[in-house]
Amino acid sequence: MSSIRVYGALWCPDCRRSKAFLNEHQIAYEWIDIEEDADARRYVETLNDGKRIIPTIVFPDGSYLVEPSNAELAQKLGLKTQASRQFYDLIVIGGGPAGLTAALYTAREGIRTLVIEKGSLGGQAATTQEIENMPGFPDGISGQAFAERLARQVDRFGVEVLRAQEVRTILQESERHRSVKTSDGSLYGAHLILIATGARYRRLDVPGERDFIGAGIHFCATCDGPFYRGKPVVVVGGGNSAAEESVFLTQFASEVTLLVRGEALTASKVAADKVLGHPKIRTYFHHEVRAFHGKSGKLEAVDVEDTQTGERKTLTPAAVFVFIGQQPNSEFVRETLVLDARGFILTGHDLEHAVAHLPHRPEPLETSMPGVFAAGDVRAGSIKQIAAAVGEGAAAALFVRNALKTM
């Protein structure tokens, strides 16, 4: 056995949670559906004294966990979930390109830096099949390889990284002291905080969607595309992500049906041309998803509507991949910081225009809480590109360095 094996069933919510955890942390595993594999079903029963308990997760050394919590999985996988100190110069919340760039800049200058990341290092960039517009990579680089390089770089400079931990609250303790509370109840202090939690994919919010997320509805083609080898899939969206991931999915799927709400793709011309010229991709404009259907926790059908004619039809793909934009990961500061109407964090000049009387004049990347900065996709006005996030991370590190000089 060379990889982790997850024994479960599509209807099992704990199985979906465990798979999501492994995907978030970019940990390879083999999925085995015990409802389709009698030998696997008997194996699970043997491990569990005759009981059919799922998920049962078997590791390469032969050990296994049964219905593990995320914390138990993190411990088994050796993910560091507790910090070595109680106080740092800087706490970075989020381990994507913006957060990791800031961390390597500050740690390189001897600034004691802690990064807290609930998922895999690299953020959404890590799940991108190919990055072709990153300066310095003329032949492109896979998202996973880019994330691995970033992780090695921050490790080289001694950045401390917590994994499988989520920040719940930010507190202003004093002028020189802020703190964060994590999902396990730990409290860590710092002079300054940088929020770089990025954004996540938006959902369609139609009937049935919630029931089949992870069981036929997905938001990451890199993570879940290989499960649908030789089967038809649907992609929803018209931007760059939808176009690029549609092309990527043709490596596995027998055919890809792309549903576009508008009259044309909004993706770049290069990406759009690849889609429209691909023999395995069928594109339908003016089409929207109205509902998802299935049974036993497994997606079976998708109702779609032609918004020009009003005609409805039912598609029966093996899976649906949704790429319709992003929502900021800012819920934990919704009651603490000033956000824009969409939930992105306001900083600098935009913040000054939004709030009549601020207790301080913020730096360009500083939030409404003095000493708390934001960078990358979670920030209002940011350019949702990897290169831009890297640049903001570097700029935030310089603002942090200057702020620390006054403390």
How is this structure best described in words?
The model has no long low-confidence stretch (mean pLDDT 92). Strands 5, 6, 7, 8, 9, 10 and 21 form a 7-stranded mixed beta sheet that branches. The chain has a 5-stranded parallel beta sheet with strand order 12-19-13-14-15, with helices on one face. Strand 16 and strand 17 form a beta hairpin. The chain folds into 3 domains: 73 residues, Glutaredoxin (3-Layer(aba) Sandwich); 193 residues, FAD/NAD(P)-binding domain, CATH 3.50.50.60; 114 residues, FAD/NAD(P)-binding domain (3-Layer(bba) Sandwich), CATH 3.50.50. It has 11 helices and 21 strands. The relative contact order is 0.13. With 407 residues, it is α/β, with parallel strands linked by helices. Helix 4 runs parallel beside helix 5. Keywords: Disulfide bond, FAD, Flavoprotein, Oxidoreductase, Redox-active center. Pfam families: Glutaredoxin, Pyr_redox_2.
Mean pLDDT figure: 92
What is the CA-atom radius of gyration, in angstroms?
Answer: 22 Å
Q: What is the share of helical residues?
A: 25-40%
Termini Cα gap: 54 Å
- Level-2 CATH architecture of the largest domain: 3-Layer(bba) Sandwich
- CATH level 3 topology of the largest domain: FAD/NAD(P)-binding domain
User: Would you count the extended β strands for me?
Assistant: 21
Oligomer: single chain
What is the molecular shape? globular
Structural class: alpha/beta
User: Can you count the helices?
Assistant: 11
* Share of residues in strands: 25-35%
Q: What is the CATH level 1 assignment of the largest domain?
A: Alpha Beta
Total number of distinct structural domains: 3
Low-confidence stretches: none
Name the CATH homologous superfamily of the largest domain: FAD/NAD(P)-binding domain
Q: Which sheet architecture does the biggest sheet show? A: 7 strands, mixed
